[in-house]
């Protein structure tokens, strides 16, 4: 999400600071045939997330992103959707700078999550995946 300094209709997304409120990578199993967060969206067409109750009131952009890593040799493929929303009745908090990133710039080609070879002989034995981007902001700090 990114807080707009006023109306989101007058904001430029590249100028905003973004923070992550949720993420889902490899949920269970291994890299090859495990259950992935993107699989939830593919199977159901839905991904449910709760906006932290502590978040300050205001206008925000929310960004939903699926990252395809099946062709690591060409780099990840990003499938991004954004929407505007207005938070009311929030808790008055904003994320600390350590949670904020800019787009472009939030990711590096060297991020471990972008350099996974799903076709390697080791892939069926790997049961962890490091998601790119900042830590999730839960509203607790």
What's the structural blueprint in terms of helices and strands?
Elements: E1 2-3, E2 26-28, E3 35-36, H1 37-44, E4 58-68, E5 77-87
Antiparallel strand pairs: 1-4, 2-3, 4-5
What does this structure look like?
One of its GO terms (cellular component) is extracellular region. It catalyses: [(1->4)-beta-D-glucosyl]n+m + reduced acceptor + O2 = 4-dehydro-beta-D-glucosyl-[(1->4)-beta-D-glucosyl]n-1 + [(1->4)-beta-D-glucosyl]m + acceptor + H2O. It is found in: Secreted. This protein is mainly β and 141 residues long. A hairpin with a 6-residue loop joins β2 and β3. The strands form two sheets. Strands 1-4-5 form a three-stranded antiparallel beta sheet, with no helix packed on it. The protein has a two-stranded antiparallel ribbon with strand order 2-3. The protein has one helix at residues 37-44, and strands at residues 2-3, 26-28, 35-36, 58-68, 77-87.
What is the topology, as strand order, of the major beta sheet? 1-4-5
Order of helices and strands: EEEHEE
Low-pLDDT sequence parts: none
What is the CA-CA span between the terminal residues?
Answer: 16 Å
Subcellular location: Secreted
EC number: 1.14.99.56
Pfam families: AA9
Keywords: Carbohydrate metabolism, Cellulose degradation, Disulfide bond, Polysaccharide degradation, Secreted
Briefly characterize the structure.
The protein has one helix at residues 37-44; strands spanning 2-3, 26-28, 35-36, 58-68, 77-87. The chain has 141 residues and is mainly beta.
């Amino acid at each position: 999400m990114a807080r707009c300094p006023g109306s989101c209709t007058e904001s430029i997304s590249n100028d905003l600071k973004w923070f992550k409120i949720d993420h889902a990578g490899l949920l269970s199993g291994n890299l090859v045939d495990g259950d992935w967060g993107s699989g939830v969206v593919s199977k159901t067409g839905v991904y449910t997330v709760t906006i932290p109750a502590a978040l300050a009131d205001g206008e925000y952009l929310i960004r939903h992103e699926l990252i395809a890593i099946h062709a690591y040799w060409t780099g990840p493929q990003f499938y991004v959707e954004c929407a505007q929303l207005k938070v009311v009745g929030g808790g008055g908090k904003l994320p600390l700078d350590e949670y904020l990133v800019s787009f472009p710039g939030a990711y590096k080609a060297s991020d471990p999550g972008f350099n996974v070879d799903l076709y390697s002989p080791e892939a069926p034995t790997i049961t962890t995946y490091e998601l790119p981007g900042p830590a999730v902001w839960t509203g607790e700090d």
